[in-house]
Structures are given as structure tokens and as C-alpha cells.
Amino acid sequence: MIYRMEDMRMRVFLDANVLFSASDLRSETARNLMMLLNHGHEAVTNPYAWEEAWRNIKTKYPHWLSGLERLRDAVAIIDIPAIVDIECEAKDKPILAGAVGARCTHLWTGDKTHFGMFFGRKICGVTVVSSLQLTHLLARG
Fold first, then answer.
1. What is the mean pLDDT of residues 63-89?
2. What is the tally of structural domains in the chain?
């Protein structure tokens, strides 16, 4: 059987850096997020990632806070952490645990330093993807 992307609904967890970038509604990340949603896929995050994005935006680009607030209706904020047994930075565990706990198919992150070695790989049932990889997945659909 051949599956097409439109046959497979993705549930994508957004890391704080993706939320941060998507808050600039003119950004490529914001366009990719809208493409994801317009193709019928889900965008999910957790309170940990949301708060991290909010803190960073407030500090660096406070005029983007309205963009983050506009994302609130489009992104489900789910707080069902899972226990993940993987070596990673303490600050990154809540991100992966949030994606696993929310039963996401993908974790979208721009964090090459901490998640780069996992790009394209399935970790605890969640495929870790960069923006480029997500764009390719959406283009195939």
C-alpha cells in the first residue's frame, strides 16, 4: 500500500525556538507553520516551551508578543509529560517529554546544538525534524 502525506496526519510538537521564530508573522517559520495547519496537521507544544518562547520574545523582541498570542489559537498547549530515558541537556528533556507525552509524530526544532544529532531520527517514537526537513515533508504531501 502506498501512503501519501495527506493520508497521514502529523501531530507536530513545536520547540520554543520554533514558537519564537513563528511569532514574527513575516518569517519563513510562520509560513511553514501555516502550511502545516492548512494541510490539516496539528501543532502542539507544552507550557514549558510556550513560557520559554514568551520569556525570550519579551527580552529580545517585545513587539513580537502579539504574534505569539495570535499563535495561541492555532497551537494546542498540552501538559502531559512522559518519562524519557535519553541522554540530553536537562533543559531539553521537557521538550522531548512533552512531544512524547502529547503523542506527537514529530518534534520540530531549530536547536542544532542539542537536537541536531537526532534530526531525521525517531526518538522515543517521535521523529525529530529541522525546519528544512519539515518543509520537505509538507512539500511531498
1. 87
2. 1
